[in-house]
Structures are given as C-alpha cells and as structure tokens.
Design a protein that fits this description.
The protein has 4 helices and no strands. With 102 residues, it is an all-alpha fold. It has one domain. Bound molecules: fe (ii) ion (FE2). The site of fe (ii) ion has 4 residues, from helix 1 and helix 2.
Length: 102
C-alpha cells in the first residue's frame, strides 16, 4: 500500500518495476543532495574534528548514491547504454556524444 505522497501517478497503476525505478531515482536524488549538503558544511566549518566527520559522511553518501545508480543501470537499458558511453572515459564529453550518435 502506498504510504508516500511523493508518487506522481496512481500507485496501483504502476508496475513493480516502475515503483522500484522511482524509489531508486528518489534515493539517488536524496543521496546526492546529502553529498552537497555535507560538502558545504565541511567547507564552511572552522572545527577540524567536525570537518573530518562531515567529509566522512559526505563520502559515505557518495557510495550510497553509486549503489542506487548501479541498481538503475541494471534495471534500465537506457541508463546502461549511456553509462557505458560516458562513464570512465577521457577527453571532451560532448565529442563523446557526437561519436556515439554517429
Ligand atoms: Fe546515504
């Protein structure tokens, strides 16, 4: 049963795959938002101990974001295709797009 007000479509009308896709996308959003917030706080604090904790937490959130992104890659062929095109490459990213579209 849906308990979240965050669904934009009827929960009953979505497949389990679509529900899990949405859950993972939202998780990536939340993890990356947390990465940004921890990073800002780490940059701003003058307390060295707190800075180290915040940087640790930021880096944990990066790990969480990548786990959710990998989940999306596994369940969605378009994520898989574009990640294979762009990730772990070198050079101009727009040139990679041009070559990929040839
Ligand atoms: Fe997290």
């Amino acid at each position: 049963m849906a308990t979240s007000a965050e669904w934009h479509e009827s929960y009953a009308d979505m497949s389990e795959l679509a529900r899990n896709f949405s859950r993972a996308v939202k998780s990536v959003q939340e993890e990356l938002e947390a990465v940004d917030w921890y990073n800002q706080r780490a940059q701003a604090t003058t307390d060295e101990q707190l800075r180290r904790i915040l940087e640790h937490n930021r880096d944990e959130e990066i790990e969480h974001a990548m786990m959710a992104l990998e989940y999306l890659r596994r369940i969605n062929p378009v994520f898989d295709k574009h990640m294979r095109t762009y990730l772990f490459t070198q050079g101009d990213i727009l040139e990679i797009e041009e070559k990929a579209e040839d």
